[in-house]
Amino acid sequence: MRIATWNVNSIRARSEQVVAWMSRHAVDVLALQETKCRDDQFPVMSFLAEGYDVALYGEGGYNGVAIASRVGLDDVHRGFDGQPSLEPGAPPEARALSATCAGVRVWSLYAPNGRTPDDPHYRYKLAWLDALAGVTRLELGHDPAAQTVLAGDWNVAPTDDDVWDPEYFAGRTHVTEPERAAFRAFGAAGFVDSAAPFTPGPDVYTFWDYTAGRFPKNEGMRIDFALCSPALDDRVHDAFIDRDARAAQGASDHAPLVLDLS
Known about the structure:
Blueprint: E1 2-7, H1 11-24, E2 29-33, H2 44-48, E3 53-57, E4 65-69, E5 74-78, E6 96-101, E7 104-110, H3 120-142, E8 148-153, H4 166-169, H5 177-188, E9 192-193, E10 224-228, H6 230-233, E11 236-241, H7 243-247, E12 257-261
Parallel strand pairs: 1-2, 7-8
Antiparallel strand pairs: 1-12, 2-4, 3-4, 5-6, 6-7, 8-10, 9-10, 11-12
Helix pairs in contact: 3-5
């Protein structure tokens, strides 16, 4: 079974590219982030034509998550209990979606960016990650044998090795200690960065900004992850980051991350 996660940065602009990539790489389940469209605008037919069912959670020109699966798509849930909002009383943003695919509970997650450490979005980001950690920690505690993957764009680079230049990022979001501590909370709960053993060295990045020729210079960040429960991690026998997908004409600024399960 092959599970992937990809921030596609507008599915309407890249649906043919995404579906062709899924077919070419025999992906069984894809968690998509930053779809940037309402549910009625999502190009579902492109996926159905290739044998994929799709669960959607969109809100317009921002955010948006989806899960495409050709191995089943059951028990779909939008958001999570206690998911905070950016402003009191506002509805939760479309940033979390979960479904069961061939016995695996797949989450598609798009963590808030944070903008700057003194911005309200930064406090919102920390609250969002803390609430997600609480829910998933509780679920794993209730069922330690659960097969779960928390896949998506976390907007956190956990260590200095996950950015091209730590000095450049000093004082910026994605690398602050509170953000890194929020990410570590998932590891403390038992979730495993299952791709890490298979993606060592200088090719760990999953995101390269469009500006300043970042991708050709490999000035990137590792901010996309598939965190697996221990039972699912036992099944992971390979993983890779598809830089070729980022290099394609008109590509997203993120590369897909792929896990292979026994």
